[in-house]
Amino acid sequence: QLQLVQSGGGLVQPGGSLRLSCAASGATLDNYAIGWFRQAPGKEREGVSCISSRDNITYYTDSVKGRFTVSRDNAKNTVYLQMNSLKPEDTAVYYCAAGTLCVLWRNVYSYWGQGTQVTVSS
Question: For residue 81, which of 68, 91, 90 has the smallest C-alpha distance?
Answer without folding.
Answer: 68
